[in-house]
Structures
1.
Amino acid sequence: MNLIAAVSLLICSVRGFQQNPPIASTRRLILQTSSHPRILTQQTSLFSSTQTNDSKPKNKRRGNKQYNNKKKRKREVGAGKELKNPDEVITWRCYGIDVYPDDLLDPSLNIDKRKEKRDGSNVPSERSYLTPPVISSLLSRLRIKSEEATDGLPSILQDARVVRRSLDARRRKGSDPKYTYVIDIDLTRQAARNLGLAPQSGKMEILDDKKLKGQDDDIANNAEDSQAKPRIVIVGAGPAGLFCALSLASSGLCTPILLERGQPVETRGKSIGALIHRRCVDPESNFSFGEGGAGTWSDGKLTTRIGRNSGSVRYVLETLVKYGAPERILVEGAPHLGTDNLVRLLRNMREDLRELGGEIHFGTKATKYLIEDGKIRGVEAECVEVNERTKSKLIDSEAREHESFKTFYGDAVVLATGHSARDVYEELYKAGVELEPKGFAVGFRIEHPQRLINEIQYGKDWGGRVFTKRPSTDTVNTEHFEKLSEGTEESHQGTLPVASYRLATDKAFDGEQNRGAYSFCMCPGGQIVPSSTEEGELCINGMSFSNRDSLWANSALVVTVSQDDPILDKYRSHGCLAGLEFQRDIERKAYELGGMNMTVPVRHLLLDIHFNACNIGLFLLTQIFSVGTTIDRLCKWCGVFVYSSVILSTWSYLGTFT
């Protein structure tokens, strides 16, 4: 098999992932699915099983008989300690409900959902995923006979809701991929005793109010006199800034004033078009700056590692659905919005924020922070003209009073500026604000045919069951697997989503030391886009539309750089901003290497792996990058430490697929 893999420059990882990376403590490269690890490892029973004769000492047979009879009596209905509130309804969270794709056929389709749509009503996603095969697997786990369920759920269960669905693509001993569900069930305390349910962390849990809690009750629905409301200035209209403003406005306790240096989403698209087609970089409105932040034109993956089933995460997802996101994100284990959905969603969110009393100022770049007596009092900003379109009309900045400079005073200032706003950190540094450097990551973006990733993840027998609803893409994938399985009959009817992957190792040797290397922002069925924010610099990112129907997959592949890394020694004169200067330097070198016209330098990865071809020009077939590509030696500008680490960290995953 010929693998066409392109390595393109990626510096956006320095900007987009400043946290400590998820490096695995293992000597080999680890391949994981995008599903939640905790969900995927729940393979044991949810019940505390009764001890059997085989587990007791065999020389105490009489004792064993009495022991078993005693346990049997306790399992009888109503036996044991009397319940205080037997009719009280409680919610149990059940993990590890497995269903195979062939049983689902179409996992997103439900007969009841289609009926409800014909009737003109709407079925919530948490119930539309509760298909008969899922219910059957749930009843099996609860040890309820399926014939007891007359109309979907048995009478002992008052309600059931799908909280999360993930795909476990690990092929243990040749097993098929399977969907793993997390389901909440409502039943009385007496019913729980009758079923013998026992709480087990990560398997079967009783939910309390804290786990179901979303917004902070202290700030929700507490409207006060508008005359006494404090004013909170928020700098940056990315996800953090927008949700901060919405939460404050919804509370009624204060007035949020949201400042965004970029343009509203409808005008921002024109700036991005100029970058792609005319190679013109607008430093204030681009793939990184503007309404919605970098994620608006960078995929919209919803990733969290802080309790994916918690109430706070649920609140964020429900808010996105309220403003136009597809309901499936409430259930999917790896929720994805897609750039096409985000444009409409952000406009709805903006209008609601204003109706709640919040202010939004686009084209407003914070240039100075007013600090008096150790406290911040406000922000000075530079303003440019803005054209904003609402649902009903076009708001032209020329029709409003326009000021080139304006000061916004507030009782507090929230900085939600993201990693790309270097000038913010430089201004804070000059103002004497204490800053602390932290580690980051730098590397490339790697690109592969999506059909190859489908094959690696799902195997030859399941890879052909991936469908995107785009005929040309699905035809290419189907023909690829027909050739691989020529002469054998297709045995599966279920469908699978386009495959993704995650790689991590802490044994990527750079010639002097081992470094952490990992994949980041993997975009199945996606494309590569330019994300430069300044003239004379080159940076790229990846994205996918909601259907993920491109022929290509791409991912960042990066290595770690600690705050005391020797690679930063030449930049130490910049103090705690040494990492930012390193970023600037490496992006400038990439710009020069590409021909100083926004063309991206690329390499053929597998030939470099097999022949150590760091200085050999190679003909490259790849997805046509929107601004253009050129073949050159990446290691001569990024440093051998980055290139060598990336090459070694991909060997075990891709090296055998040539």
2.
Amino acid sequence: YRAGAIRVVIKWHLRASGHAVMGACASVQDANCDEGDGEATTKTRSASKSPQYLEVLVHNEVVAGVPETEPFPPGPYARLCNGSRGCDIPNPSERAITLRQLQHVFACAYAACREEKWTSTDPRLAGSALTIQTVTLRDIVENFVKPATAGGNRSLVEMIGSGAQKPMWFVSHWWGEPMHDLLSSLEQHAHDHGTSDDTTYWVSAFAARQSREEVEAERACESVRDTQRFKAMQFSEGLVNVLDRDAIALTRARVVFELYTALTELPPDFKIDVYTTTALDPDQPLQRPGHASPAVWLKAKPSSGEQLTWQPLRLAVGLVDGLQADVRLLGPLIATAAKARRERGFPMTHHARARVLSVRHAGATSAEDLAWIRKLLHGREAEVDATLRARLGAPTLPSLLASRELSAEPLLKRYLSNLARARLRRLAVACVDRPTAERCAQLGAALPPVLEELSLHHVHGGALIPRLCALLHGDHAEANSGRGPLPPILTTGTSANALTARAGAGENGLTRLTMRSCALVDAHGVALAEALTRNATLRVLILRDTSFTDSAASALARALRTHSALETLKLPRSAIGDVGASAFGGALEVNASLATLSLNSTRVGDGGATALAHGLAANRTLRTLNLRKNAIGDAGAVAIGDALARNARSALRELDLGSCHVGDVGARALARALGARREPGLGLTVLTLIKNQLGDSGAYALADGLRAHADSADTIRELAVFNQASPLSADARAALDAAWHHGARAAA
């Protein structure tokens, strides 16, 4: 393909499994073509610079998998199954398709499209010939899936699969979207999450049998929870909402129904990612391609100089729900900034379409489908609109909060109005630039009482604390007022009584609160602690990068003595010191719910560690204790080790003392804890001592502890002792290695 100075060579390869994969090249060739004769001479680039995947769509004229002059292998339907007889999968929710299978299906379908000269099934484009850019999922279903599956008696996944395939992700999309755009979005999604081509996606067109019987059975469902789609979502980690280039999908009733179902009927941690395709724009952020990266490598003449350059441009961009994928690939420190940079290319027109989404005006190809969906959503139309607008508009909230432009004010008010009415159970706001206290107060006033999980990063925490305390109290009249009456823009059409009734029906209760870099001080910590004493729902509290001292820590520790629901408390990067740690040690003696306590980088020394050890000697529920990057030396480590050795019923499984000042004496005490006999299911399984002051003596003691613990059913699974102040000798390392591979651990 060539357009001006851009030239791309695309080849057709068959993998060992027989699946046809478009553009899967071991190396990429540079095409040096003369304008006159069109003949190409090739030279192979080094494999280190070649992408592992080449997309087949570039602008308007495309070479798809096979050059136009090269005939396809005969029989696209036969090639689809690769000689397989297929299988029967009675449960539709287990008919997911892998990314590799989806690529193969598209290759075979487009082969049939070219051989049979398909025309569009869209009445507006009746009679027009289809190309690789315009062939839609509906075209493929009507012209390829139904003929290949004997009229729909089998699903396509049953034709090409060998058994049940449970979905990892549920795909919500519009059938009128070009199939290539759908494939590009899913490839980018897999790449962003660091997953392989074997990632499974539930795509209704390929999972459902296209027979009238199965379609009518779906429409007969009286409850959302009885539908095939809901059951497939239950298997999935999350939902991928794939939008076409004009975001028409947001005007389709089935897409609206699927999004609302995912937001309201599934657990709050059910992820919702939004992806779309983008035009090839040289100014878009570049991304290094991975194993499934849908990158097009373009050979372009530079503005100056003689050497030609290759650079990848993405065909799809997505809004990933949360930071988990970025943290796993990049680490927590740069995850937020990297996510913001990657998602900057998401089209603003799609955000504008989401702001006016309306279920009343949503359409469907089938009148029966539309009537069925309207029946299921009857009476909840306003709630559906507000919920979807709030969730799909959430990625724009940080920029609206921080913007100083006058044009942002009405957009912010409109969003907050929807948020106040939404049945939204999870909200994450990660700002790059900290908004003003006034803007954060407006956000607090709009937080719906039904929120269960709230994550705030780099906001003005002080302006939000009163509202958060009201939500934790369960005082919904106060929660609805926040810092005072709701602004008029937030009260129109929403009464406090309505919100209180929804909250009182059991639909609310914060279970997870995360605040990072929110400028929290002791007064804020004390206020949250007081709110906890009247709360029975919060399970996870993470307050990171605060200015807390022993005052806030003592207040939170007092709350732990009476709070019976909190399971995770993390206060990393604060200044609670030994006094604060001592308060938590006292709380551990009586608390029976806390399973994770993280006090890393909190200026805790031997005194605080000794007080925590007193709590550990009596505690039977704490499973993870993180004291990394503190001033804990041998005295503190000895106290912790002795406490664990004495408490035969200690539930502690993970202990992190990395980047402290633990030496050989402390290591010997921890080794005794490793070798102590415990009840089944108890005992340390992870011990981290990296970047300490261990010597050979401590290493030999740990090796003895490993041998004593080797035959236990709950033997330690991870021991980290690298990067000590002085390197361990070869003999000490050999002793640790031999002890590690001794007994039951070697068999495991």
3.
Amino acid sequence: EKSGGPLQGQPGRPGTAGGPGAASNNNDDFCITASNLLADIASLDSTQVPPSMVAQYITPTIVALCKHSSFRVRRAAVQALPRVIGGSSMADVQENLMPCFIRLSKDEVYRVRKSVGECLVDMSRSLMLLPASLVDMGKPLSGPKRSKQIESFRLTLQEMRRNSLIPICTRLLQDTNKVVRHGMMQFLGPFIASFYPLEGEGYSQDDENGIMYMLGGKEAENSVGGLGVQFFPHANGMVSRLNPDNISAAVAKKTKAPTPRSELPIDSVEFLESHLPSFLEKCHNDAMSLFRILQHRIKHPVPAKDITAVKQSLMPSYVNLSSINTGDSNVDAEMRVYCAYSLPGIILLLGQSGWEDSLKACFFQLITGSSISAQSKGEAALVPLPVKRCLASSFHTVCNMLGPSITKTTLEEKANKLDLLTIFEVNFLGDADETVRLNVIRNLPSFLSLLSFSKRSNYLPVLYEIIKGDTMLASKRTNVLNPILLNWRQRDMIAQILPNLISLYRADQVRQYLWPIVKILLSDAVNIVRENVEWSIPILLRCYEVGNCSFGGEGDVLHASKFSTEACDEVFLFLKDTLLNNSSPRSAARSSAGAFSKRQSYCRILSAVALILRLNIGAKSANGDTRDDTDGNAPPQHPFYTLSSVEYTHLHQLLKKTLLPSALLMKEDKVTNVRLALAKCLRVMPLDIRDRGKVGVVLRTLEDEIQTWEGGGGQDMDSEVPTTKKIQMSGMSLAGSTSTNGDPKAVRVSGNIDMQGTTGNSMETSSKGSLTGDSRRNRAS
């Protein structure tokens, strides 16, 4: 800087390789690199690089780079400003950094102005992350004094954001260069969403009540269900960029590597939870994330001045994106995708009033391709496929943010098909694109939970026909290499949502509409679909508890008892006929080929029933039926953790007296993998079943046999066995591969999907472990 060369853009010494122009480019590259490095240094923790050091060494250099003759250097300096602000003092921001940003927004080179628009989101967030760090840099404050000073800083910076950044945005939206205008349109939605407060109670990044804590990085995002994509566009990367040191520490403190199953005690809760499928955890985490966001908005309302400024200055341009007409169809489609992507975050910011004012019209314009007035006249345009996919993914979040009242419609809206239920049925579930249907099916229980029980019940027959219709379960797209398997992911998604879907309805409705779907999926040609739908059986049997079958009326107790008995017997007889007696709706040739894998499936179903009992030991509530509960303030419940005491007793009796006897007959099954599956099943049984009577004898016999297998059969089990012998066993997956240690007695079932989506071939072994003649032939599971 003192030499005046690189910062002033002076050419290098003549005679150097490449000439004066090459030397000048090298100087520019040095300045660009310096901008990034200085921004990284400024964003370090204030204990390492205090604001006084930033003001003395970094700010003057960044300001000089903002005045550089090369537009490439000025553009790099613009991109560095948000990170420098994160480590600066209030005076430095007001007197030096913000004036530089405003000046560069009027730069003569359009590329610099475009970069200013791209940095608006980071500038907005960095200003609001500053108050807590400014307070913590001085004398340590706590309690009311700290909150009061943070609030003072926050109000000042909010006013600066309204008075400086919003005018910059509106000016760039009206820029004479279309590249600048289109670039600002791309970031308009995220910029509006950035006005939502990310702070928690203490306005700190380490505060678990704040959104920033949940946006701490990829691992933290996955652990809470992916908040950034749905609500805070571009916020995940922004938080890490603006303060990587603090955020990494918060994430390290929050996340911890999971303990391998083989190292967990067999009767620990962690060991039992490790058996639950990942899709159940993901579904519950997504629901909890949505619940936490909505609770955060109630506790931390958006400032009224911010909402007013956004509505007056930015919302007209944003709503216009849904119907923009630039003359280029590709650009128009791209802008509509940007609009749809940011919609949940903007609805979260503006709430119900914003929806009624302009966002409702924007939503219907995006999904139907025409305005509400044009739609009533039957006019419609082609909707870009990415827009439909994006809106299908966020439809349940939009409905949850607006509340149950959003599903109430007028007669006029229903007649014109402008109510959300019709949009859900026609534009999402009935769409020709499989990805659109998958995106909305994935969150179907979340949407249905918003409906009143009567409306939810009236909608169930419609939903049943759609799921069983030509676009879903009845759709059998085939080709020569992959018969009946091309659309298995759609059926698998239905299998994954069934546990939560069953929990929303009464027993008679479940038996009439959902149980037939379960039966279809239990006989599916694809192994992963069958495995995932097995987790619905415990929830189904729980639903058939006598108390849940009581619907009111004279003689209701006797009717409920009879209904419960008949429904449970129907489930057991179907499982017995399909999985144990080998009488499937499919052809006999295909069914007999995978008979042993069906017996394994029966063992897995028993494991699922046993797990829901083990995870609910000590259930004390008199009645766990919450299907009529529409209280939005109640956190979402995991389907495997909400048993009442009477439901626990009901499932326990079914498992012990009805389901288990058929499984114990497999102790001498000729197929090794079936006996292995039975051993794994018995190990997760409730203790009063596992450690007593015939079950304990069978389990110990199987464990002893497994240990005699060549190479140590204990590797096929999960962890240390709680017997007097203290047999050490490590975890190994049962499905998916064939043993590679040369032991023919431990040949595994290969029934999962291969890379082409087909089911793998399987082989049976005799009770002595030798391969039979038939097993050498390929047999489809």
